Amino acid sequence: MSTPIGRFAPTPSGRMHLGNVFAALIAWLSVKSRNGGFVLRMEDLDTQRTSEEFAEILRQDLQWLGLDWDVETQPQSKRTAVYDGYFERLRDMGLLYPCYCTRSQLHSVNAPHLSDGTYVYPGTCRNLTPAQQASFDRAPAWRIIVPDRNWKVEDLVQGAYEENLATDCGDFVVRRADGVHVYQLAVTVDDGESGVTEVVRGMDLLSSAPRQMYLQELLGFSHPQYGHVPMLMAPDGRRLSKRDKDMDLGYLCSHTTPEDLLGLLAHACGLLEKREAISAPELARQFSWERLKKENICLDISELLR
Ligand SMILES: [Zn+2]
Questions:
Q1: HSE-up of residue 70 (Cα within 13 Å, Cβ side)
Q2: Ligand 1 centroid, distance to 172 Cα (angstroms)
């Protein structure tokens, strides 16, 4: 078997919060437990919210946790020309069309909203004539035609997950009207080009996997193994988020040790039988996907700060 290659692809828009830490930890443990490689990549397509300053803090946070990486690939903001090349390939295949729908049209016309707040695009602009297209005085977004076919994800955590892009998603945007390539395309290209064999990330991205599998197939990349890890919840049932100040590493670095933090996380998610201070390499030696909990994980950070 070839060497497994995992990755962590944070958005450098602030300090790492515990949800990021957890996804990075599991991604890292999975490949390091099998002597695999680990890729770091900054997902900074949104240049308004992201900065190199935050990227540097993220690197320091990972180092503090003991999660090292073998290579950091070029940040997404520097890869527009690369994405353009793949975009052209898709267009040459006859799969892309311009979409002139405004945001409010998309939200009013499209009745079936999915649980994650997205909607099924009904193909409004798919068959516009050149004359109709020319009648709009704004730049279009570009959508890709999706096949009426089921995509099955054999997820390391969630098990089998299936989606038909035609009925569950509709033709989706690959390039926005302002020229920025969307996450789905950038991620597919970046993971494919860096030889990533395993994509471990938060459960909230599970429904992205079928769209990425479709793009992988079109662009000639192998499908990676997916592992969508559960969300972290506060004891009161809230989902932990960036908004919780005490959940970011800026605060935690000065109130605890990396070993105590990793021990708390590993115990909460089922990897450790009892809570004890432990380093990332020690955890890697005993990592197994089977032990990882599948449901939301309750994390009581106050246990750490006492
Ligand atoms: Zn449209």
A1: 16
A2: 10
